[in-house]
Design a protein that fits this description.
Elements lengths: L2 H7 L13 H11 L12 E6 H16 L19 H16 L6 H10 L8 E8 L4 H20 L3 E5 L6 H7 L6 E10 L26
This protein binds flavin mononucleotide.
The site of flavin mononucleotide (FMN) has 12 residues, from strand 3.
Amino acid sequence: MKVSRALRKRHSCRAFLAREVDFAKIKRILTLASRAPSGANTQPWRVAVVSGRSKLAIENEIETQFRAGNRSRADYQYYPVQWSEPYKSRRFACGLQLYNALGIGREDKDRRREQWIENYRAFGAPVVLYFYMQSHLEAGSYMDFGMFLQSVMLAAEEEGLATCPQAALAEYPEIVKQKLGLGDGFVLLCGMALGYEDTSAPINQYRTPRARLEDFVTFHQ
Ligand SMILES: Cc1cc2nc3c(=O)[nH]c(=O)nc-3n(C[C@H](O)[C@H](O)[C@H](O)COP(=O)(O)O)c2cc1C
């Protein structure tokens, strides 16, 4: 598969088929993604491949806590504390596209909440990848990790698999780290749903827009 095709084809998939993913595929994806560059070849990435009973145990616990109103905090601040333009509008549009695709109105708080909870089940994907790294690592390692994440998603495309990177899956880091047997000293960055796309699901029908080149690039000669 050409890189350009993989880049265009990748999108955040939020409904999956109930079809197992061959572990050999996952190993190929992660091996290939580890070709991603990192400062001084530090390779900060760590990955837990979670499925079956382990996946269920984590998501059950998180959903229970969420429904009980017990909120937690991610290990790091992913989103801006103060939203400003153009990010505020883009975020709003992003949510609107998702809820419109499902026919969920703005006022329908119950259905929005239930849809949000789908995050904690990785939208029904058979596999979740949890990404973490040592917590003393600095901003450069977060950059390196981002390159690794995109590499995972593109390699998955080549294997015929769909993904959804999910910050939501890092909202209860203590539960995830306890279930995965990770000691202190790790920062849980995000999760990623992995599986075969349900191409007929309404939630998978839309594609997100991007700013025009002129809006984010300047040329200097
Ligand atoms: C690190 C990261 C975390 C994200 N977290 C979530 C999430 O928790 N839930 C979700 O539904 N989408 C999540 N997304 C998906 C974004 O909403 C999506 O990438 C964006 O809207 C662009 O759409 P596309 O991925 O389909 O091109 C996340 C994306 C990234 C890169």
